[in-house]
Design goal:
Layout (H helix, E strand, L loop, with lengths): L4 H4 L4 H16 L17 H12 L7 H20 L12 H12 L4 H11 L7 H19 L9 H11 L4 H14 L7 H20 L26 H13 L1
Helix pairs in contact: 2-6, 2-8, 3-4, 3-5, 4-6, 4-7, 5-7, 7-10
């Protein structure tokens, strides 16, 4: 696919439109904090998060669908390690992975993320997707869908504050504002107990359904994290964050 990359990547008008929407939404959502996504206090490690952001943003450095998946895999493994290291804390578990991934995508503002996800879906052999890789891929698709659809009721945030940020960034039109106000007036004052997690679950389910329709197999039992031999020019799959940091230090010392 590397030789056909220029003719196959981001050639659809829908991909370009989704890229623009995601970029605009991520820029407008920079005010979002972990609490807005109901991520428990103490989960986010700023240094580890920054490292994971770097890994995800490497996705545009590669042309092969497999290499792009490796970037996603490395990023998500770092988030998993972040959660695992804090799993003994009260209220922290696997359910916090998707909100944490959404928070990372907002912070990363990865260019052409929608096009990259569509490119992987179209050109990566589905039989080559391991259970761990397909799980992380679907989770990232769900995170992108959530950001595209997010509204004032999707986050634990003041409605007026959300609208102000959206309007300031140009991420909400006057028509959308009127629709939101109309919806709010008809819904009344009641709201779900966990609005963010409810919206996240719906977005992930929608992404999983879309992936299944495209032929991407559903989640299976995750395989152990193992080092995989790859070509010299391909991105390296890291076992964990400590190994990654050791390698980075060795490279800087040279």
């Amino acid at each position: 696919m590397t030789k056909l990359f220029e003719r196959t990547f981001r050639q659809s008008a829908d991909d370009v439109e989704r890229d623009d929407i995601l970029a605009l939404r991520c820029a407008a959502l920079q005010f979002v904090k972990p609490a807005h996504l109901e991520i428990p206090e103490g989960v986010v490690d700023d240094q580890a998060l920054a490292t994971a952001v770097v890994e995800l943003n490497k996705i545009n450095q590669y042309k092969a669908p497999r290499d792009k998946l490796v970037c996603i895999l490395n990023c998500c493994r770092m988030l998993t390690n972040m959660l695992t290291s804090r799993s003994k804390s009260e209220g922290i578990g696997a359910d916090d992975f998707t909100p944490l991934l959404i928070y990372l995508v907002i912070r990363a503002q990865t260019p052409q993320l929608a096009s990259n996800l569509a490119y992987i879906e179209r050109y990566r052999y589905h039989s080559k997707l391991t259970s761990e890789t397909q799980y992380y891929y679907i989770q990232l698709c769900g995170a992108a869908t959530f950001i595209e659809m997010v509204n004032a009721t999707s986050l634990k945030v003041d409605r007026d504050e959300f609208i102000a940020h959206m309007l300031a960034a140009g991420a909400m039109s006057d028509e959308q504002l009127l629709q939101l106000q109309s919806t709010s007036s008809t819904d009344g004052q009641s709201s779900p107990l966990h609005p963010a997690k409810d919206s996240i679950s719906k977005s992930t389910a929608q992404a999983a359904a879309q992936a299944a329709a495209a032929g991407v197999p559903g989640q299976q039992q995750q395989q152990p994290m193992v080092q995989v031999a790859v070509p010299a020019q391909a991105p390296v799959q890291w076992y964990d964050q400590q190994q990654y940091q050791q390698q980075q230090q060795q490279m800087q010392a040279v």
